[in-house]
Amino acid sequence: MNANEPGVTWSIDNAPAIDVHGMTVVPRARILHVRWPGGGWVWNQPHSVQVTRAGVVSETPIVDVTLVAIVALRAVAVLAAAAATLWMVRGLLPRGRRNSHE
Amino acid sequence: MSESAEDKGIETIDAGVIEGNKQAAETIQRLLDVAQPHAVFKEPVKVGDQVVITANELSVGLGIGFGGGSGTDEEGESGHGGGGGGGGASMGRPVAAVIITPDGVRVEPVVDVTKIAIAFFTALGAIFVAARRIRRVAKDRRSATGHSCGSSDIGGSPRNPARG
């Protein structure tokens, strides 16, 4: 699909290669394109670095530590809220109905 | 207003809306094209025998809309009009530094302590609010059952029936 057309595209693209110290380094980025009529949103995130040295290709991932930490904390908050809601719902049920569930 | 003048006015609005949408689409495309891999990775900087490339997260979003219309009021007077609006936001954040040395390539993460701290305290607040709600429901439940049970119904600590 063309990124200009409405829809969602997800790709991993290469940035220009860098030749240094006898190595060829290719930074790679993941790109999420969301287009709709009259608007759009693009999210670019570093993905990895591809290194070619003496004919050997290796890839080093780029981990977004901040994003991982934030997602983990939010997940903990959501789980806590879900557990609390479940607990409350169970607590609010009539005793007999609760026992029949158990 | 004569009929032909009105038609001409509506045609002008329609043409304006079409042209506006066309220009909006071009503007959106130009802005979204900014977010490409070469924008994520900055120009390499040489420091001694090391080459450093900073890697950033980029996010761009925007929306534009145009519209027009015509109508007739209760007295038979007709009118037409058009308008448009838009909004957008962009965000950039350093994620890591790619350091190329003669020995190899290593990736050093950039940790945004402020963002993590904000997320931590938000999560803590959500857990605190949830705990308070649980306590409140447990208390209501206990008072509704007339303190007759030997232990809390809702996960509370065991209670002394003598105190009941």
Structure, described:
The complex is a heterodimer of chains A (102) and B (164). By secondary structure, chain A is of the alpha+beta class. Chain A contains two helices and five strands. In chain A, strands 1, 2, 3, 4 and 5 form a five-stranded antiparallel beta sheet that branches. The model of chain A has no long low-confidence stretch (mean pLDDT 83). With 164 residues, chain B is of the alpha+beta class. Chain B is built from three helices and four strands; from the N terminus they run H-H-E-E-E-E-H. Chain B has helices at 3-33, 37-40, 113-144, and strands spanning 45-47, 50-72, 78-101, 104-109. Chain B has a four-stranded antiparallel beta sheet with strand order 1-2-3-4. Chain B is flat, with a radius of gyration of 32 Å. The termini of chain B are far apart. Classes of the chains: A alpha+beta (102), B alpha+beta (164). Chains A and B meet through strand 3, strand 4 and helix 1 of A and helix 1, helix 2, strand 2, strand 3 and strand 4 of B. Strand 4 (39-53) of chain A pairs antiparallel with strand 2 (50-72) of chain B.
